[in-house]
């Protein structure tokens, strides 16, 4: 049980670490089009991301999938860029439509696969050569999930303040947040060793 707690805290701390803000940017880019009242949709979205990264986190940690870290370090900001860029073209009417927003579920699941490869390098360094990692993987993923939910909830509360209390138009909010994230994602891409 102590081991579970340790890996849960490691997963939580990893997602909440502001120095590794790339994953936070991705979560915020996914959540940018939602409002606080959409919390159920956002919970599904975050869970889709968790499922995606859990798959590749397990496969990579067990050495079934091996991809150069430089490629993953480049692809993670690409996923952030694409997600935020897609937000720029969502019309006000599509922000309220359930069917249009389902693309975000696909992005969360698919891009979660890439982010899982990023998490795996960190987790591999912690596990060493241990072959019994099921409990550790589960605990780490649950820690990540709790951290992601806190990030999304915090962002939705900030959105509520700006949109519902201050009267900022929802479309303008999405454009502002997504544009900032695009700029940061481009910076991250340029900083990678991929070039």
From TrEMBL:
Manganese is among the record's keywords: no
Pfam families: HupE_UreJ_2
Transmembrane intervals: 20-36, 43-65, 71-89, 101-122, 142-166, 173-190
Leader peptide range in chain numbering: none
Keywords recorded for this protein, A-Z: Membrane, Transmembrane, Transmembrane helix
Domain of life: Bacteria
Matches recorded under InterPro entries: Put_HupE_UreJ
Keyword Signal listed: no
Protein name: HupE/UreJ family protein
Organism: Marivirga atlantica
């Amino acid at each position: 049980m102590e081991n579970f707690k340790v890996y849960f805290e490691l997963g939580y701390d990893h997602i909440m670490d502001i120095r590794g803000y790339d994953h936070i940017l991705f979560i915020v880019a996914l959540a940018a089009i939602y409002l606080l009242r959409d919390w159920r949709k956002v919970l599904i979205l975050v869970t889709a991301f968790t499922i995606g990264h859990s798959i590749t986190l397990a496969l990579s940690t067990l050495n079934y999938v091996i991809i150069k870290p430089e490629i993953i370090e480049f692809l993670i900001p690409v996923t952030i860029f694409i997600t935020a860029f897609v937000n720029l073209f969502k019309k006000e009417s599509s922000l309220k439509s359930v069917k249009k927003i389902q693309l975000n579920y696909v992005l969360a699941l698919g891009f979660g696969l890439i982010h899982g490869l990023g998490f795996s390098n960190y987790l591999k360094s912690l596990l060493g050569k241990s072959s019994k990692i099921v409990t550790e993987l589960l605990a780490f993923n649950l820690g990540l999930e709790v951290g992601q939910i806190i990030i999304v909830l915090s962002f939705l509360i900030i959105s509520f303040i700006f949109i519902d209390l201050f009267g900022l138009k929802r479309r303008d909010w999405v454009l502002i947040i997504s544009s900032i994230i695009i700029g940061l994602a481009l910076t991250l891409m340029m900083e990678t060793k991929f070039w």
